[in-house]
Amino acid sequence: MTTDIDSLKTNIKRWTLILGVLQITVGCVIGFIPPSAVAWFRGIVMAHIEFTANGVLMVAFGFLVKELRLSASVLKVWFATLQIGTWTNGAAGVAGALIGASSKLMPTINEKFPPPGGTDNPIVSGSLKLCGVTIMVALLLTLYGLLRSKTPGYDAKA
User: Fold this and answer.
1) What single-letter DSSP state applies at residue 37?
2) Tens digits of per-residue pLDDT, 106-154?
3) Cα-flanking dihedrals φ and ψ of residue 71, to 5°?
4) How far apart are CA 70 and CA 87, in angstroms?
């Protein structure tokens, strides 16, 4: 049984690292999109920042996978929520850029950079809500798995 969970952790770690680096790459590529190519350029700026930052988060979490004491099914939920949460964050910015609209969940950006298509788009808002819920689940499962970990701590005598 231990071998099965270790194998699963190895695979999840590998895919978390690969998809994290991919997300950083996507964020950098999005940064090359010129303002004239989209209806609301601030959405591109948001997507660039969110994809790169969330990719870094995913890479960091990839190195924590072996430390998480979670069952196989909970580990799969952790991986799925981490992926959904990090990818939908940047996707909300891309959608906003292409649609030319934003969400009421972003009042500061709307005030400084009003989108031409309004500030109440259900696609952008839905993506942000999905992002918020799934990232929180992934964060809480990460904390839970780390707190349950039996990894020995610092030993001053060692």
Assistant:
1) G
2) 999 999 999 999 999 999 999 999 999 999 999 999 999 999 997 565 4
3) -70, 165
4) 23
Q: What confidence tens digit (pLDDT) does each residue in 12-33 have?
A: 999 999 999 999 999 999 999 9
B/e letters for 6-31, b = 16+ CB within 10 Å, e = fewer, are eebbeebbeebbebbeebbebbeebe
C-alpha 45/C-alpha 74 separation (Å) is: 34
Both tokens of 101, joined, read: 């609209």
Cβ(149)–Cβ(69) under 8 Å?
Answer: yes
- 90 in Cβ contact with 30 (< 8 Å): yes
How many CB atoms neighbour CB 33 within 10 A? Answer: 17
User: d(Cα 100, Cα 39) in Å, to the nearest integer?
Assistant: 5
Closest CA to 113 of 54, 56, 37, 39: 39
* 113 secondary structure, DSSP code: S
* Rounded to 5°, angle at Cα 123 from 118 and 127: 120
The structure tokens listed for 64 are 């924590």
73/88 Cα distance (integer angstroms):
22
Angle at 59 between CA 55 and CA 63, to 5 degrees: 165
Distance between CA 43 and CA 41 in Å, rounded? 5
